[in-house]
Amino acid sequence: DAMVIQNPRYQVTQFGKPVTLSCSQTLNHNVMYWYQQKSSQAPKLLFHYYDKDFNNEADTPDNFQSRRPNTSFCFLDIRSPGLGDAAMYLCATSRKGGNEKLFFGSGTQLSVL
Amino acid sequence: AQSVTQLGSHVSVSEGALVLLRCNYSSSVPPYLFWYVQYPNQGLQLLLKYTTGATLVKGINGFEAEFKKSETSFHLTKPSAHMSDAAEYFCAVSDGFGNEKLTFGTGTRLTIIP
Hints:
The complex is a heterodimer.
Chain A: E1 4-7, E2 10-13, E3 19-25, E4 31-37, E5 44-50, E6 53-56, E7 64-67, E8 73-78, E9 87-94, E10 103-104, E11 108-112
Parallel strand pairs in A: 2-11
Antiparallel strand pairs in A: 1-3, 3-8, 4-5, 4-9, 5-6, 7-8, 9-10, 9-11
Chain B: E1 3-5, E2 10-14, E3 19-21, E4 24-26, E5 32-38, E6 44-50, E7 56-58, E8 64-68, E9 73-78, E10 87-94, E11 103-104, E12 108-113
Parallel strand pairs in B: 2-12
Antiparallel strand pairs in B: 1-4, 3-9, 5-6, 5-10, 7-8, 8-9, 10-11, 10-12
């Protein structure tokens, strides 16, 4: 029944070592989002795709990149993780954005050693 | 620009008591407003949303919220708290004009006292 699936659930990487987080969806939604959520803070939007159109938030660090090879999959690449990038990364989808309900995955908890 | 303020990062209520979680928003256009709940180690789940029409919105698990434009508020309530309501609650706003972004508040952690 899982509709937005994030793998892995926990990811440990080393300082400066590239890491990729993955997200897949079975909902056939147009919009996919990546949020960063640090402890006791609000989820912060990093970027989103409307179909293949990529939209980067102005304050998203260049260290973060994303790929969406098809409707079902979206990846978050962190090129050189720093200690400050340790967080929960949430993937979400919606049919067409804005006033539409977001469906979230369970998240990937990233630790940077 | 939109913003959301949630008053009280932690709220504790006794089981069976009224739950009131506060949310105030700022938006230059008519807002769309949402409440999401996050249980430990899980993603966020939509509780309810206001877009247009009736200002009192009912959601899942017995929660409801009222949009008050004059007070720029969208407070979440539940008449009788259950132990299963213990979670983090996030209020969020979008501008409702096809904008694909939600702006979240910093969350309120609800603890239920047996």
